[in-house]
């Protein structure tokens, strides 16, 4: 009997098999099917240690406003150094440079809360852009006054006029608080990230400013700082989707924020923290200068910021537990203890190690402190509350620098390291007072 030629068919997996044309013949044998190979099971990759930071940037617009915030905050570490080098180089007077810087700091302490209050009332974009434009214009006039040897009073007037610079760090924290208002863990991570960003800006800003002013021309640092400030604020303000809603003119006012229970003591802690920063900076410079290594003082101080930044990055990965007031009191107490380490340093290398360790408690203190400010201040006045905290720090820096400068002139080098110890002890007592009041009983 003649049998038809088999057909070649393509089976799953690309295998050729023979198929009989007479498949309906009773004697025909159907070839067995080959089972499909099992699909490989993909095991989910465990999230990395930095997964918590990636998660907060999942919300649309967060990356863009963060880039703008970083660009606008980078000049914050550049202005002071640029001003001192610019005026000291062109006018030959560190006293004049210091006086102009102090006048600008005092003006900032007065104007910054006003700008923040307007920002909360009318929106970040509506106030930040014109305030920045005014600040940049005043600074450009300052550069012209320096370049064309205008009278000294014009330096004071123009540098005071530029004090309308908005607090973009506070505005960024306000955006995080609005986006993750129902997620305390995400807010904790976001606050930690913002503190690391602050430390990075204040660590790299002075280095960049010093390089620009010495390698190019005296006004270069201030000029670049203003370009970064304006471009950063414009990018930040353009991200309207993440901006907290503004209550407008009809919003109900609740009086001064200083009437809120616990907030004055909290701001006093921020002031003491600023005293620590200012005293450490001046005393470290005097300590290094007395040992013939004044040029190394900047690198030594950068290690303190590096220690704080590393601690902030790790602290953001921890899961907050217990009342925020308790965490704040514990971190301030740790900061007070670690501030005793510089007293043990006999030389510059030892001081560098001590400052790195001392800085490790700074970021947790700031993170917990800003968390408390977010829980205390009304949502409609959040930027004002955080600007008050920053203003307290700035006032403390000025006070600590002045006290440490007097100690450096009249007492042996290194004596000024007792100032951070005293300020830290007072801060710990005040933080304990905040905790004892059980402010809001918050666990955020």
Quick rundown:
This protein has 444 residues and is an all-alpha fold. Helix content is 67%, strand content 2%. Strand 1 and strand 2 form a beta hairpin.
* Reported CATH architecture of the largest domain: Up-down Bundle
Unreliable stretches covering 5 or more consecutive residues: 1-24, 40-48, 439-444
- Largest sheet data: 2 strands, antiparallel
Q: Write down the CATH topology of the largest domain.
A: Growth Hormone, Chain: A
Q: What is the C-level CATH assignment of the largest domain?
A: Mainly Alpha
Give the domain tally: 2
Distance between the termini: 88 Å
What is the assigned CATH homologous superfamily of the largest domain? MFS general substrate transporter like domains
Percent of residues in helical segments? Answer: 55-70%
* Gyration radius, rounded: 30 Å
User: Percent of residues in beta strands?
Assistant: under 5%
Mean pLDDT: 76
Class of secondary structure makeup: mainly alpha
Give the SSE order as H and E letters: EEHHHHHHHHHHHHHHHH
Please report the total strand number as a whole number.
2
Number of helices: 16
Across the major sheet, the strand order is 1-2
Shape: globular
């Amino acid at each position: 009997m003649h049998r038809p030629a088999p057909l070649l068919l393509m089976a799953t997996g690309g295998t050729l098999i023979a198929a009989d044309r007479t498949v309906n013949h009773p004697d025909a044998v159907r070839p067995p099917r080959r089972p499909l190979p099992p699909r490989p099971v993909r095991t989910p990759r465990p999230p990395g240690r930095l997964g918590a930071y990636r998660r907060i940037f999942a919300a649309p617009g967060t990356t863009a406003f963060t880039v703008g915030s970083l660009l606008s905050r980078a000049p914050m570490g550049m202005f002071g150094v640029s001003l001192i080098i610019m005026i000291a180089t062109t006018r030959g007077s560190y006293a004049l440079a210091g006086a102009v810087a102090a006048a600008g700091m005092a003006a900032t302490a007065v104007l910054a809360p006003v700008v923040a209050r307007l920002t909360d009332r009318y929106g970040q974009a509506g106030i930040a852009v014109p305030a920045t434009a005014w600040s940049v214009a005043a600074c450009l006039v300052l550069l012209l006054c320096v370049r064309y040897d205008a009278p000294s009073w014009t330096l004071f007037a123009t540098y005071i006029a530029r004090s309308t610079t908005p607090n973009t760090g506070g505005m960024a924290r306000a955006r995080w608080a609005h986006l993750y208002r129902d997620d305390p863990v995400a807010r904790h991570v976001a606050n930690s990230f913002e503190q690391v960003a602050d430390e990075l800006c204040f660590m790299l800003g002075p280095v960049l400013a010093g390089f620009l002013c010495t390698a190019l021309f005296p006004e270069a640092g201030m000029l670049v700082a203003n370009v970064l400030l304006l471009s950063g604020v414009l990018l930040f303000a353009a991200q309207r989707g993440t901006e907290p809603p503004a209550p407008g003119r009809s919003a109900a006012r609740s009086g001064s924020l200083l009437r809120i229970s616990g907030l004055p003591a909290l701001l006093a802690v921020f002031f003491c923290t600023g005293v620590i920063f200012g005293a450490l900076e001046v005393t470290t410079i005097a300590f290094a200068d007395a040992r013939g290594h004044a040029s190394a003082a900047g690198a030594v101080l950068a290690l303190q910021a590096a220690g704080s930044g590393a601690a902030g990055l790790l602290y953001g990965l921890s899961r907050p537990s217990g009342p925020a007031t308790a965490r704040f009191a514990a971190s301030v107490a740790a900061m007070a203890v670690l501030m005793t380490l510089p007293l043990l340093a006999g030389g510059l290398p030892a001081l560098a190690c001590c400052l790195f360790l001392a800085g490790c408690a700074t970021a947790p203190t700031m993170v917990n402190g800003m968390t408390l400010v977010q829980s205390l201040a009304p949502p409609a006045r959040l930027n004002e509350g955080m600007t008050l905290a920053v203003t307290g720090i700035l006032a403390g820096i000025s006070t600590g620098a002045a006290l440490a400068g007097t100690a450096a002139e009249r007492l042996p080098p290194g004596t000024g390291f007792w100032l951070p110890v005293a300020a830290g002890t007072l801060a710990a007592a005040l933080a304990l007072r905040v905790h004892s009041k059980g402010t809001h009983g918050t666990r955020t």
